[in-house]
Amino acid sequence: MEPSPPPVDTPPATAAAAEGLAGAVAGMSLDERFDLLMGIAEECIMPDELKRLLQNKPVPVCYDGFEPSGRMHIAQGVVKTINVNKMIKAGCKVKIWIADWFAQLNNKMGGDLKKIQTVGRYMIEIWKAAGMNLDGVEFLWSSEEINKRANEYWPLVMDIGRKNNIKRITRCCTIMGRSDNEELTAAQIFYPCMQCADIFFLKADICQLGMDQRKVNMLAREYCDDIKRKNKPIILSHHMLPGFKEGQEKMSKSDPTSAIFMEDDEAQVNLKIKQAFCPPNIVEGNPCLEYIKYIVFPWFDKFEVVRKENNGGNKTFANMDELTADYVSGALHPADVKPALAKAINEILKPVRDHFNTNSEAKVLLNTVKQA
């Protein structure tokens, strides 16, 4: 028998939380809520459907999920916190799917479910410390929820499998971090069918996942056509942060020097950013500028550069367009950007470091994950 997932020490969904979501809706116009959600998306499918949803359903359900598979990098930690808080501010209820069974299917942590669930608890601790607004969040363990409603879940998975051929499903396997031509286990073929089923199982109105999950979200919309379902899930796909090395389109845990982890100390953050690819005058493909755009500005609403008077003096940028113009012209140099970026990132990560240094349970979780 598989072990039961450990309890998640987060506030339960309460009447007060529901009132808070309703209050958020009452305090914002339809356009303000729409713009807030669109601000998350690099791509939205479909904007008109999103606006209609917000008009007709005061508290839509947003689905996000994660595979507990090791230490958490800053894109998972900070960007997810920013996006979840925006969704809650816009009046959404957020269901975060702790995909422990999926990590086992994908052979993460050697397929050891107990280790996978430890990683899941560690990741939740990070989001709590990072400032995720948990009032509108419900964490759900896939193994537990599927077992509780197996008679609902597995027929749905089977029907999705029946309505798609192997070629269509294997095209979706990139969602697992696998290439199209990689040899897959039989278990991994289940994965896209199950992730597609999750969207309907959780009664999600909106799928808020990265661009790397786009294929399976589109599979869910196609499935709606197959079953003649009118209301399709709306897809809000967020931007994928690159790694720090030249040409790394996606941040990777497998190369620790190319990604900042949520519990990295100040010296590690400073060193990684100091060594990062950051060509002068070039914005396209510049990971340091992407960090500023997708992390620093959403967090602080500004970017502060400290430099000597003969180098232009201190300057506070109010938006990315202003910063980009200075960078392209050469008025802002990589040697100015890097220390300012490191300072901002260290400030964001400080509450997480403090939590893992002072909370004994969190410290044990981190050490266990690092050893695994």
Automatic annotation (TrEMBL):
Gene Ontology BP terms: tRNA aminoacylation for protein translation
Molecular function terms, GO-annotated: ATP binding; tyrosine-tRNA ligase activity
Top-level taxonomic group: Eukaryota
Protein's cellular compartments: Cytoplasm, Cytosol
Record's keyword terms, sorted: Aminoacyl-tRNA synthetase, ATP-binding, Cytoplasm, Ligase, Nucleotide-binding, Protein biosynthesis
Enzyme class per UniProt: ligase
UniProt-listed Enzyme Commission number(s): 6.1.1.1
Substrates-to-products reaction catalysed: tRNA(Tyr) + L-tyrosine + ATP = L-tyrosyl-tRNA(Tyr) + AMP + diphosphate + H(+)
Pfam families: tRNA-synt_1b (PF00579)
Subcellular location, principal: cytoplasm
GO terms under cellular component: cytosol
NCBIfam families (alphabetical): PRK08560.1
Functional note: Catalyzes the attachment of tyrosine to tRNA(Tyr) in a two-step reaction: tyrosine is first activated by ATP to form Tyr-AMP and then transferred to the acceptor end of tRNA(Tyr).
Family designation: Belongs to the class-I aminoacyl-tRNA synthetase family.
Name recorded for this polypeptide: tyrosine--tRNA ligase
